[in-house]
Amino acid sequence: MSRKIKRIALLTGGGDCPGLNAVIRAVTRAAILQYGYEVFGYRFGYKGLYNNDIIPLTLETVSGILHKGGTILYSSNKDNLFNYLIEENGSMVKRDVSDVAIENMRKEGIDALVVIGGDGTLTSARDFYRKGVNVIGVPKTIDNDLAATDVTFGFNTAIDVATDALDRLHTTAESHHRIMILEVMGRNAGWIALESGIAGSADVILIPEIPYDINKVVEKIRERESHGRLFSIIVVAEGAKSINGDIVISKIVEDSPDPIRLGGIANKLELELEKVIKEHEIRSTVLGHVQRGGNTCTYDRILSTRYGVRAVELIDEGKFGSMVSLKGDTISYEPLENVIGKTKDVDPDGELVSIAKKIGISFGD
Ligand code: F6P
């Protein structure tokens, strides 16, 4: 056991994700019970590190949070301390304020920092490590699009919610003989649409990795009609695009490291289909942040707990500058330097797409 580490701190950055609280709980409990560390949390992600907004985390503080979505430490998806908006001589300017954060940690006696976040948050974690901070990263995102780990926590909760939404759309689609479109999140990766589509028995799955031809989607609906199936269910990833189209952007969030917010493809698809399909009503539903809220599923509670405990073990082993990851059945770790910016898309020729096609699901290609 490392003798030098006495106090550790955690922060959560980027969009919230089911399982954040489970990681906070696991880190805190393992750090206190196994290693006798004192544990603290910075509130509102890196902003809290800059403002020294720090609170103690104890066995009591983390009690009763395992199942809850969100983060008791709050989060921010805008604050990059290496390019941070501050007021200087009456005007707002961007400055590298990372030294202020490092000085805050030094004053509080923080020996190691556990950063829980997606690619943007982990990029800053890597940059703090380069400046000598003892950092351990934990990968978070419902999108499951980080190359360095087989599964990110939050993904399984999101697909459970999306699958439940598809089940619910089925019963109403069937009653009215409607074409129902469900838009799910996932940014530029189609994992949520693909896995919820298979589990929720969608007829059509549209994902960014396979540009769709609207005529092929119509063909699938017509084929179902010829078998007496007078309703159809389409799940579309927010980042999907047609063979002649672009991604659909819902808004630009200024100051966010990744300012583009996708959204609106379901409505576009509805309008495209309405031009050709006159016999059925076509309705779209955007699942939105519902897939990130509420309770964390069993799988994510366990994965988050495994990640959290391993993060503390890595602190004890002095393996700083690493990120915990899942490889097969094993919790492992990777250097942050190797993982930043590396995404994992759905393979159009991979097993999941292939089995979906073999059971008759159309990808509009
Ligand atoms: O990365 C997670 C995610 O939920 C994406 O699936 C989605 O595109 C984005 O975040 C939404 O971000 P925000 O919470 O800023 O709307």
From TrEMBL:
InterPro entries: ATP_PFK, ATP_PFK_prok-type, Phosphofructokinase_CS, Phosphofructokinase_dom, Phosphofructokinase_III, PKF_sf. Its cofactor is Mg(2+). It catalyses: beta-D-fructose 6-phosphate + ATP = beta-D-fructose 1,6-bisphosphate + ADP + H(+). One of its GO terms (molecular function) is AMP binding. Signal peptide: none annotated. Mg(2+) binds at residue 119. Pfam families: PFK. Substrate binds at residues 141-143, 178, 185-187, 238, 283, 289-292. Its EC number is 2.7.1.11. ATP binds at residues 15, 78-79, 118-121. Belongs to the phosphofructokinase type A (PFKA) family. Mixed-substrate PFK group III subfamily. Catalyzes the phosphorylation of D-fructose 6-phosphate to fructose 1,6-bisphosphate by ATP, the first committing step of glycolysis. HAMAP family: Phosphofructokinase_III. Homodimer or homotetramer. This is ATP-dependent 6-phosphofructokinase. It comes from Clostridium polyendosporum.
